[in-house]
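Researcher: Next entry in the queue.
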Amino acid sequence: MEQIREYFEKNFELTEQDWQIFSSKLIQREFEKKHLLLRQGQIENHLSFIQQGIVRFYIANQTSDLTFSFAFHNSFVSGYNSFLTRSPSSYYIETLTNTVLWQLTYEDLQEIYRHTNIGNAIGRHASEDLFLKKSQRELSLLNETAQERYINLFAEQPQLLKEILLKYIASYIGVTPQALSRIRKRIS
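Model: Structure for this entry, 188 residues:
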């Protein structure tokens, strides 16, 4: 729990009272690799902070899954559109490594909003973080080649090669595994 407190203290003025209320609602959960955190059709009930691990977002396809996002330690993860609208998710969220999350339920987050000074700032920060990642992803798909997306992904998250299957990376940058193999040969 200290890791999440340090993260919030870097970004907010966190009073001891606010921390006590906030931390009393946090639940630490550990998940093994390949665990589905959210299934298509399920309503997302958690806003989570990744203490450790890697998570992927994907849409199941008849021929192969379409990976459209990854989330890493010290970041938020949620099927946020489902979380906000309380409607079924149109995608899956899966752990790619053993993962430790600190989770808040939707109801607990609403209570934190009502009873703390910091709650709205934390909620805004989490939603801004998720929005910026989504926007960067969209711009990347519109403005960069697959090779540029691959290079940028590893500049931002160099441990990916060791931890994420290449078929997921290929899907994420929008190419086949064979095309990814050619890109890797060109840049090595």
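Model: The domain at 2-134 is CATH 2.60.120.10 (Jelly Rolls).
Researcher: Noted, moving on.
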